[in-house]
Design a protein that fits this description.
Helix content is about 65%, strand content about 5%. By secondary structure, the chain is mostly helical. A hairpin with a 2-residue loop joins strand 3 and strand 4.
Length: about 525
C-alpha cells in the first residue's frame, strides 16, 4: 500500500524531497562532495583573479608602459590557468562519481525494496512503468544531483568571487549592474514549475512505452501469427508522437530562460558602459579598473545564466525523485508477523477453514470456502474459469492474505509462520512457465543457492530432461534465452518441474512419473488446477 503523504505547498514539498535525497543518498558521499566544493572554490577564485589582472595589465603595462610587470602578470596568468584546469578536472571527476554513486545506490535500494513488495503491487503496475524508474528517472536524478551541486558549488562560487571583484573596483557600479536581475526571479521560478509538470508527464509516457515495447517484443510470435504488425506499429507511433510533443514542450520551456538572461545581461552591460565610460572620461576611474570590472561582469554572465537554468534542472530531478520515492514509500502488507516461527511439516495436510477473499473491494473470489487436502494425496481442483482454482493456490504460499477464515498446514496457520520457511516448503509449476535468461543449471537450481551438481542432475533426471541437456553443446551451461525462448514448450515445462524437484528428494520420489505429472498439467488447461 502507499503511505499517505501530507499535501504540501510546492516549496515545502521541494524542500522535503531535497532533504530526503540528501539524507538517504547524498550523505554517504559527503567527503567527496566537500573535496569537490574545495576544488570548485579554487576554480572560482582563479577566475576572479584573472578578471582582477585586467587592471594591472591596462594601468601598469599598456598605460604606464612598465615592462617589469610583464613577466609577473604573464606568470600569474599561467599559474591561474593551471590551477583552474586542475581544479575543473578534479571537481568534474568527483561530481560525476558522486552522481553515478548516488544513482547506483538508488537503483540497488529500489530493486531491493521492490523485491519485498507484494505480488498485488506488480499486478497493479505494468513492468515498463517500474523499469522506467530504474532507467529514465534514474538518469534525470543523476543529472540533477551532479548539475545542481555543480551549479551551487562552481557557478555560485564563481559569481560570488567575481561580484567581489566588481564591488572592489566600484561598488556603486556593481549595484547598478545587478538591479535588473531580481526581475528575472519570478519567471525563472515559473519555468521550473512548468518543467516539473512536463517531466512528470514525460516519465509516465516513457513507462507506458517501455511496457508496450516489452510486451510486443515478447509476444512477437503472436503478433505475426495474427497479422497485427500494423496495429502494433500504430500503437507505438501514437506513444512516440506523445513523447515527441512532451519533449518538444520541455525544450521550449527550458529555452525560455536563455533569451531572458541574454536581454537582462545586455541591459546590464549597456548600463555599465554608459556609467563607467563617463567615470573614465571624467578621470574618476582608471581604464584598468573599468576594464577589470567589465571583465568580471562578462565572466559572471555564463555562471549566472547556468544558475538561471538551475531551477529547471532541479525540478526535472525532483519530478524523478518524487516518482522513485513513491516506490520507496510502499510497505508490503504480506510480511512476517511478530513471533512468527519456521514452518514444521509432519505430513503436509492443508486445510481451508471458512476462507473469504477478494482481489479488490466488492469483488469476492472465494466465499466461505472450507476444504482439507490430506497429506500425501494428489488433488485436482476442477471448475469453470474464474471459479477460484488459482486463487486457492495463491493463498497457500501467502501471495495474498485471506480476509476471513484461515489456512493451515499441519495445523499451523500460514500467517503465523515465517514466509521464508513457508515458501521453501512449496513447489509451484504453473501453466505459464517462467524461466530466466540464464543457464539451464541456474534455472534448475533457482532458489537453492550453492546446490551441488549431483542434486541438479538428479532433479533433471527426475523431470526427464537430463539426456536432452547432455546432448546440447554446452550441456547444463546452455543459455535458455529470455523466458526460455530457446527451448520448446515441453522442455520449458520439464525445466520448471526440475527446478521444483531440485533439493527435495521426497518431491523427486513422488513425482518421478513425469508422464503422469504432464497429464495432470495438461488437464489444467481445461479447468483443473
Amino acid at each position: 500500500m502507499f503511505k499517505k503523504r501530507p499535501i504540501l505547498e510546492e516549496p515545502a514539498r521541494t524542500a522535503a524531497l531535497l532533504w530526503r535525497l540528501g539524507r538517504d543518498f547524498m550523505r554517504p558521499n559527503a567527503g567527496r562532495i566537500a573535496l569537490a566544493f574545495g576544488l570548485m572554490g579554487a576554480a572560482a577564485g582563479s577566475t576572479a583573479l584573472r578578471a582582477w589582472l585586467m587592471q594591472p595589465v591596462l594601468d601598469r603595462v599598456f598605460v604606464g608602459r612598465d615592462a617589469s610587470w610583464l613577466l609577473l602578470i604573464a606568470g600569474g596568468a599561467l599559474a591561474l590557468a593551471l590551477v583552474k584546469g586542475i581544479a575543473d578536472y578534479g571537481e568534474a571527476v568527483l561530481m560525476n562519481r558522486v552522481g553515478q554513486r548516488v544513482i547506483a545506490d538508488v537503483q540497488i535500494a529500489l530493486f531491493g525494496h521492490l523485491m519485498r513488495a507484494d505480488l498485488s503491487y506488480f499486478h497493479r503496475h505494468p513492468s515498463g512503468t517500474l523499469i522506467a524508474r530504474f532507467t529514465s528517472d534514474a538518469v534525470l536524478l543523476r543529472n540533477a544531483a551532479a548539475n545542481v551541486l555543480g551549479a551551487i558549488g562552481k557557478d555560485a562560487l564563481t559569481v560570488v568571487f567575481l561580484v567581489g571583484v566588481m564591488f572592489y573596483q566600484d561598488w556603486v557600479l556593481a549595484l547598478v549592474s545587478f538591479f535588473i536581475f531580481p526581475v528575472a526571479i519570478h519567471p525563472i521560478v515559473g519555468i521550473g514549475r512548468r518543467m516539473r509538470r512536463v517531466t512528470a508527464n514525460t516519465q509516465t509516457e516513457v513507462g507506458q512505452l517501455t511496457t508496450l515495447l516489452s510486451q510486443t517484443f515478447q509476444g512477437a510470435r503472436l503478433v505475426k501469427a495474427y497479422g497485427m504488425e500494423a496495429y502494433e506499429r500504430r500503437r507505438a507511433a501514437a506513444l512516440f508522437e506523445r513523447l515527441f510533443a512532451l519533449i518538444d514542450r520541455a525544450t521550449r520551456i527550458r529555452s525560455a530562460a536563455s533569451p531572458m538572461m541574454e536581454t537582462l545581461g545586455g541591459a546590464a552591460i549597456a548600463v555599465v558602459i554608459l556609467y563607467g565610460g563617463h567615470q573614465v572620461i571624467g578621470g574618476v576611474r582608471t581604464p584598468g579598473a573599468f576594464f577589470s570590472f567589465v571583465t568580471a561582469l562578462l565572466l559572471a554572465y555564463q555562471p549566472v545564466k547556468s544558475l538561471a537554468n538551475l531551477n529547471a534542472s532541479l525540478q526535472e530531478g525532483l519530478a524523478a525523485a518524487d516518482r522513485i520515492f513513491q516506490v520507496f514509500d510502499i510497505e508490503p502488507r504480506i510480511h512476517d508477523l511478530p513471533g512468527a516461527k519456521p514452518l514444521s511439516i509432519a505430513g503436509g495436510e492443508i486445510s481451508f477453514d471458512h476462507v473469504r477473499f477478494g482481489y479488490a473491494p466488492g469483488a469476492v473470489a472465494l466465499d466461505n470456502i472450507s476444504l482439507t487436502i490430506p497429506a500425501g494425496r494428489t488433488v485436482a481442483l476442477v471448475g469453470a474459469s474464474g471459479a477460484g482454482k488459482s486463487t486457492i493456490l495463491n493463498l497457500i504460499p501467502r501471495f495474498f492474505d485471506v480476509e476471513e477464515g484461515s489456512i493451515t498446514i499441519d495445523g499451523q496457520d500460514v500467517r503465523s509462520v515465517t514466509l521464508a520457511s513457508l515458501r521453501a516448503a512449496i513447489a509451484i509449476v504453473s501453466q505459464e512457465v517462467t524461466l530466466f535468461d540464464d543457464t539451464l543449471r541456474a534455472n534448475i537450481a533457482y532458489g537453492r543457492f550453492g546446490a551441488a551438481a549431483t542434486d541438479i542432475e538428479a532433479a533433471a533426471r527426475a523431470a526427464g530432461i537430463d539426456g536432452f541437456i547432455r546432448d546440447l553443446r554446452d550441456g547444463y551451461d546452455t543459455q535458455v534465452g529470455e523466458h526460455g525462448v530457446r527451448l520448446s514448450g515441453g522442455q520449458r515445462q520439464r525445466v520448471a518441474i526440475a527446478r521444483d524437484a531440485e533439493g527435495r528428494p521426497d518431491f523427486i520420489a513422488r513425482r518421478s512419473d513425469v508422464g503422469a505429472r504432464q497429464r495432470i498439467r495438461a488437464s489444467s488447461a481445461s479447468g483443473v488446477a
